Amino acid sequence: MPVPVPQQRSVPAAETSHGDLTLLVIEDDPAGTTITVPELSAAAGTRVRIRTARNLTEAARLLTDDVDCILLDLALPLTGGGAGAGTPTADAGTSGTGTGTGTADSGSLPEPVSERAGELAALTHVLGIAPQHAVLALTAQDDTELAAEAVRVGAQDYLFRGELDARVLSRAIRYAVERKRADTAQHQLTESRLRAQENARLERGLLPTPLLDGSGLSFAARYRPGRSRALLGGDFYDVVRTPDGTVHAMIGDVCGHGPDEAALGVELRIAWRALTLAGLCGDELLSTLQQVLEHERQSEEIFATLCTVDIAPDGRRAGLCLAGHPAPLLARHGLPARLLPYQDGGPALGLLPRARWPRRQVELGGAWSLMMYTDGLIEGRVGTGGSERLGQDGMVAMVNSRLEQGLAGEELLEAAVAEVRELNGGELTDDVAVLLLGRDPERIRRWGGSAPRSHPASVDRPPSPPARAAGAQRLPL
Question: How far apart are CA 150 and CA 161, in angstroms?
């Protein structure tokens, strides 16, 4: 029995209006006149255009982006029959585009696992050449099992020939189109979630794990990327202890806030660790890092600021190098925190081809805390209307007020970042990285000359609350 839908001329684009539906009927004898186009349009509540194809080759030619739904007769023969001569067989490797036989990627076509797979070969082929289109399967009324199997393979719905009328067909078209849209949206959402999970796992793996075992120093850090839903930004830091007992710490900031800047920051951090463990420090290390930056950056306008500190094995003195970066904050036991001198700093990496970065000797004392940070912590807005920035002086005052409240270590960092957000009147647009290194002789004696294993920094990523690092210690600061 032929499909009861007549063959009609295509309606010119100028005659169509918003909400029109285009139906592609694939049946080897579409000459029935049971349902007329006016009847179908009236039942659907909008103009319906119908295209008919006698075989899969014609269907491939008529299948365009404006087709909303495909009505496929499951009894369609795969070869032979007038215009169907030369129609390719619908195995898993057949392509329906064009008039000849072609081979497509077999992974792109559904593979029905069923004892009746041969009866669904035409449907499998159509699903392969029209993965974005809604498909209705048409079958005999007494073959419910085949109809259900067609839906399982990928059709949006099935219809029985004996029950087909304008109302049923129009409703089925609408349902199939909406279900296909929902399926596509769900598939895209699932893919997006998987990509987000993979990106999160990758970014977590790129966050540094400080190597401080045996140093006797305490460590805490806070990291908040400026990019929404990201774990990494253009800020970067690292801390390692070399075999001679020296502790090397670094914090830096690549200009910009996108994924390219985050990737460059990771490259610079890894390069810094490798060069430090290889024995480089001071001007020699920064000159080599600048070469890495120049080779890896996307544009000559990209630069990075950097602050490096190398703390002597006895923990009482350190060497400081600044490359366009804010000076660290030092607090000795019982004294207010103060900024270290900045006068001997050099330019940011990537600005001057033959720049030099002098190393300044700093006396730390017996008990101290050193706070290193990026400019995201000091460039937030403050004051009425947000016309002023917090600045380094404001940060020093903020930290000292928190010290008077008895805060230390990770609690101090959390409170500082929270206060900067509050003063800014909302989330900060720049990345923020801040870390604390400290030396407490009393604590070192309690631990027998060494500190517990350090852990990665807490990452601030709303709305999940920041996780407290298991090995983080309270610092004198």
Answer: 15
The phi, psi pair for 101, rounded to 5°, reads: -95, 135
426: tokens are 């909302």
Between CA 330 and CA 346 the distance in angstroms is 20
- How buried is 143 (Cβ within 10 angstroms: 0-12 exposed, 13-18 middle, 19+ buried)? middle
pLDDT tens digit sequence for 167-176 = 888 888 888 8
Q: What is the pLDDT of residues 426-436, one digit of tens each?
A: 888 888 999 99
How far is it, in rounded angstroms, from Cα 206 to Cα 273? 13
10 Å CB burial of residue 376 (0-12, 13-18, 19+) is: buried
- Pick the more confident residue, 202 or 223: 223
- What is the Rg, in whole angstroms, of the alpha carbon atoms belonging to the chain? 34
Q: Is the peptide bond prior to 225 cis by the omega test (within 30 degrees of 0)? A: no
User: Would you list the DSSP string of 43-87?
Assistant: HHTS-EEEEEESSHHHHHHH--TT--EEEEETT--SS-SGGGTTP
What are the structure tokens assigned to 136, written together? 């209705």
pLDDT score for 81 = 42
Beta bridge partners of 144: none
Residue 48 has φ and ψ, to the nearest 5°, of -115, 125
| Residues 286, 321: Cα–Cα separation, whole Å | 9
pLDDT value of residue 256: 84
- Distance, in Å, from the CA atom of 12 to the CA atom of 454, rounded to the nearest integer, reads 71
Q: Are 318 and 275 in contact (CB under 8 A)?
A: no
3-state SS string for 246-273: CEEEEEEEECCCCHHHHHHHHHHHHHHH
Residues 6+ apart with CB under 8 A from 57: 83, 84, 86, 87, 88, 96, 98, 99
pLDDT at 311: 97
Exposed/middle/buried for 470, CB within 10 Å: 0-12, 13-18, 19+? exposed
Task: Please name the helix (run of DSSP H) or strand (run of DSSP E) that holds residue 137, with its range, or none.
Answer: strand 134-139
CB atoms within 10 A of CB 221: 26
Q: Cα 468–471–476 angle (5° rounding)?
A: 90
Q: For residue 2, give every residue at least 6 positions away whose Cβ sits within 8 Å of its Cβ, in sequence order, or none.
A: 27, 29, 30, 31, 32
Kind and range of the H or E element at 339? strand 338-339
64 pLDDT higher than 50: yes
Q: For residue 198, what pLDDT band results from cuts at 50, 70 and 90?
A: low
Q: Is residue 469 predicted with pLDDT exceeding 80? A: no
For residue 84, how many C-alpha atoms fall within 13 Å in the half-sphere facing its CB?
18
Percentages helix, strand, coil for the chain (3-state, rounded to 5) are 35, 20, 45
